[in-house]
Structure formats: C-alpha cells, structure tokens
Amino acid sequence: MDFNDRQYYLNRECTWLSFNQRVLRESTSKDNPLLERLRFIAISCSNLDEFFMIRVAGLKHLIESGVKHHDISGLTPQGQMDAVSRIAHEQMHDIDRCLKATLAELKEHGIRFVRPEDLDAQQDRWLTEFFEREIFPVVTPMGIDPSHPFPFLTSKSLNLAVHLKRPEDKEIRLAILPVPVSVLGRLIKVPELQHYLYLEDILSYFAERFFTGYEILETTPFRITRDADLDIREDVDDLLLEVEKSLEKRRKGAAVRLEIAKSCSKETRKTLQKELELDELDIYTIDGPLGGAFFSSFANLSGYDALRYEPFVPQPSVELAARKTKDIWKAIREKDVLVHHPYETFATVENFIRTAADDDAVLAIKQTLYRVSSKSPIISALADAARNGKQVTVLMEVKARFDEENNIIMARRLEEAGCHVIYGILGLKTHSKITMVVRREEDGIRRYCHLATGNYNGSTAKIYTDIGLMTADNEIGADGSRFFNFLSGFSDPPAWNKLIVAPLNLRETIMAEIDQEIEHAKRGERAYIAAKMNSLLDRLIIAKLYEASAAGVKIDLIVRGICVLRPGLPEVSENIHVRSIVGRFLEHSRILYCYNGGREDVFISSADWMPRNLNNRVELMIPIREQDHKNRLHAILQTYLKDNTKAYLMRSDGSYVRASCRQGMTPIGAQQTFMETALSGKTLG
C-alpha cells in the first residue's frame, strides 16, 4: 500500500483554520468564565491576523509567481486559496456571532459598549470636551485627490473612509481619518460607568469637525492586513542590519485582506478594493468592531475577578524541594530535575541562570535564545555574568518571526555587557532550547545543562505548557559543548552521545523509534506510541505512522494545531487516534513515548513534526534517563488522553468533535489536574 498517496493527507492551511475554530469554540463554552470567553475570541482574531500576514501572503506569492505544484493533500496554490477563503469568511462570521453573544452577556454585569448617540446630554457634553481636548489635536485627516494620492496605511491599522461633499457641489470626495488606537487606545470609558465607546465611533460622530464646510455622507471603518513574511538574505556582512531592513519592508508589504464594516456602501468598497489591489475574496465584511484582538487586554478589566479564571500561582519545583538542599548544583548532581510549566514556576530556570551568573565557581554560560521577553531576568543575569568576568556565549535567533526587533535590542544589550553573541548557522533558524553552565568543582570541571520544549521567556512561561530538564549528566554535558561549538564555529557535525539534533538526525531517530514498534507488533508483542506536539505535517513521519498502524501499533497523538494526518482510515490509520487540547493554557510541550518492549523510550523536544523543524531549523530532542521521569511524562500523556472536558477528537475527514463527559462519568480536565497536582506538592506518575 502506498502510504504517500495524497488522499491520506489534509491541507495544512485548512487544518490550521480548524484549530482556530476550536479556539473560537471555547468562547461558547459555559465552563469558561465570561471574560475568558471574550479572551478566546480575541485570541482567534489575533491568530487570524498572523495567518493572513504569513500563510495567505505566502499563497498569494505562489499564485502570482505562477507556481502550479500540489501540496501534500493534492491542492494547487489557487486551490488552497479558494479553500482558505471559504473557511476564513465563515470563521469571521462566526467571530461576529460569538462576539455579539458575549457582549450581550456582559451587559448583565453592567459592562456595556455604547455609541455616542446613546449618551445623555451630560455625557454628550463630557464626550465633546474629551474629543476637543484629547482626540482632535492628534488626528490628521488625509484627503484623496489628484494632488493627494491614496496614503500608505500600515498593517492592522484602523481607519475611517469618509465620503463628503460641499452642499453646493455634486462632486463626492474621499478622505481617510486614521483612528489613533496606538495613542489613545481602542476603548474610551464613560465616566462613573462601565460603559465604553469605540474610538472609531467617536471619530465618526465628530467627523464634521475635520471637514469644515463639507457635508458628511458616509463614514466607514476599515482595516488592512499586509504581507509580513520576511525574505532575509543571510549571505551578508551584517545580519542584524539585514533583518532591520527587512522589518521596514514588512511594514510596507502588499495588502492581503481588507476588513470593512457591514454598513459600507458599494462605492466605498469598490474604491478601497481598487486602491489596495485586492480581489473580491480578500474583502471581509464585519458586523461589529474590526480587529477584535484588542479585547484580550480588555478581559483584564479590574474589579471583575469573578468573570475570570480563579488565579493560579505557579508552584516551586516539587523535585528540587524534595532534595532538601538550597545548593542547586548539589541538587542537580544528585539527580536530574524535571520541571512542568506553568504548573511549576519558571523562576526555577531563571534562578538557575541567576545563580550561575553570581557564582564565583562558574567559568562560562552558554545559551540559545529564540523568544525572550523585553524585561527578561535572564538577559539581566547573562549581562551581569559577563560583567563578573565569566565567558558568556549567547546564540540569539534574530529571525524569530515577530520577535526580530526585540531580539536585536536584546542582542545589542548583551554585546554591550561583554557577552559573545552569535547568530547561528547560515540558512537555519536555531529553535533549540539549551543552557549550559560550566563550573569548576573539587573534582574538576562539571557541566550543568537545562534543556526544554519551550522558550526562555518568563512571560509566555506563565501561559504555555512546557517541560524542562536540568541535568549534570556527563554525556549530555559533553554533547552540549559539541553543540555550541557546532553553532558558533566551523566544526563539522560531531558524533553525539545522547542529544538528537535537527537537521542532522532528529527525523531519522523518530523514524527508527517507530520502526522499532513496528517490529514488536510484527512479533505479536505489545506495541504503543504516544506523542504530543503542536503541529504534525511531515510526510515521511506520517507515512511511517500509517505503516505502524497497519502493522498493529497502537498510536495516540495529541496535536494542538496543524495535523494533516487522517486518523481512522480503514487499513491505513485505524489504530491512530488524534486529539487536540484547547484550554486555559496554550499547549506547547513536545513529548514522545515508545513502549519498546517495556523498556520505554521517552523524549522531550523543541521540535514539532514539520519539515521546517526537521529540515531547516536547529532543534534538539533529549532522551529521558530516569525511570521516575519516564513514569511522570507517561502519566502526563495519559492524563491528556483521559481529558473529557477540554479535548477535541479528530475525525478522518479532518473535522473535530468535542470529547463528551457523559452522565455518570467523572469530568477530567488535564490542565485542571496538573494545577491541582502542583498545588498539592506532588507529581504525577
């Protein structure tokens, strides 16, 4: 049987949109507090923005270039665009519907979104004064005529298209009013009430103030999404300078989507479409506020804690606490330490690096950084370490999408402190997560490593689920040295003791693990694979999973987002089950478990099973050596597989159905279980 047949695969873009639909669906679940449901709507809007800026922009490039190749599911670029447009239009209508329902429920709690016309006389006087004082001086109208061409409007900016004319004149003119969201915010609060006005509605209400002598015929909010994909040349003398130039190009990318208010006239729609050079399918009519991502910050509205999740405070590392020593080096030497974020605090990792920075016995710190927060304690610790005379080497990935600018700032800050900052291997993004501390001890030099599935970002570590391992294992330490030499110099790829590295041997190792289970199944022995990841797209691995399923291997996959594998196909994937968990935290950990005749091979990794991760990125996969850690990770996977409250089960056609907790069943939510376990001071397994 040909497991590479395109009929066995789904389209990547459609499966991503399916994931975003699952995010949106959480806004309708009464299990989620009301403001959290609003946040899910905001997240789905933000996700769509990025999808259009990167994925849709990429499809447009392929179409414009005349590329006709078929994707993994057999669709041409135009076929993909047609499918994406259809689903995206439906999804944005769903967002409108969900937002209306959620805002209606907020009214019951006194939180209202009103229009200027709804205000009483006293409130109207306040609004007029506010407009004259705060808004009018900031906004500059832009008229469109032969001497004033259509202006460049930045991506995701909100604007008003204004049609106007003089009373004595029949000529209709067009002007643009930029909505100054970045300066004033999207929402303006009415004094003494939890009532809010959209800034664009205020501008529309007072539009005549900007066009003295003209009659306003129409004001229409619209929003443009532009191509944000960067084409960065790496064969240059200064990579940072090249990235900075590319960031400027991103701001001026071609329009890929126009969102426009439902009230828009045909004339305005036609004019904007022409000026932005868009197809009809690129125009999205919105019956509500445009660009709903801003509701994510509004969901933090003070005084409404009852409408949000009960606060959860990440707990100290259970394993470190059990070591009964405050000496972190002694604790790690005693035994590897496994940490589970955000249930266990990321401060454990930050303290690891801070302790190294201040420890006189530490000679060197080496670290890869992909995404870091702008106020990162890790950056401060590394800078202090360099000032303290330690050798500090940091691989800063300045090509991390949408974090390029922040990473450049951080890189220069580290260089100014005396750190040696490098930018990786030509043609590859460095997505691995590793820190190595070199320390002089009584018995000689020892290396301590932290390896993880997630970024060194204290902000996202509070909302992303990830796994980290701290170890003093000599073989991993030796591999760590080889790994950094591989990244920073001209060293050929070394022979590894334990680390598994993409693009060198990560895919091959995964395939070998699957082959191992196939052999067990053929001998009539128990054969089982459980794997968790963000995305599954690699054809070679999927075909191997199909082969394993056909041989009788039982396979459970927990895939948050993109999944082009089709489970449950007769004679192909009958033994494969796929589920997606969408909950309070963003599922981000990557774990692989293979039964291997009872010996249990368990790995954590920075890599998803996608061609870009396995071919074009530097990634790490780490074998777990301690049996209690194997047990713990297996228990974590099994908890996800038992989830009947936040899990979605994938059907063979690519659709998902929510796992049901039928009458008499005990409700199980994996994330809730992990929180309760952490609060109890215990670990699973």
Automatic annotation (TrEMBL):
Residues 327-491, 499-661 form the Polyphosphate kinase C-terminal domain. GO terms for biological process: polyphosphate biosynthetic process. Residues 123-297 form the Polyphosphate kinase middle domain. The keyword Ubl conjugation does not apply. GO terms for molecular function: ATP binding; metal ion binding; polyphosphate kinase activity. An intermediate of this reaction is the autophosphorylated ppk in which a phosphate is covalently linked to a histidine residue through a N-P bond. It comes from the Bacteria. It is an enzyme of class 2 (transferase). Mg(2+) binds at residues 371, 401. Residues 9-114 form the Polyphosphate kinase N-terminal domain. Pfam families: PP_kinase, PP_kinase_C, PP_kinase_C_1, PP_kinase_N. InterPro entries: PP_kinase, PP_kinase_C_1, PP_kinase_middle, PP_kinase_middle_dom_sf, PPK_C_dom2, PPK_N_dom, PPK_N_dom_sf. The active site is at 431 (phosphohistidine intermediate). Its cofactor is Mg(2+). GO terms for cellular component: polyphosphate kinase complex. It catalyses: [phosphate](n) + ATP = [phosphate](n+1) + ADP. Signal peptide: none annotated. Belongs to the polyphosphate kinase 1 (PPK1) family. This is Polyphosphate kinase.
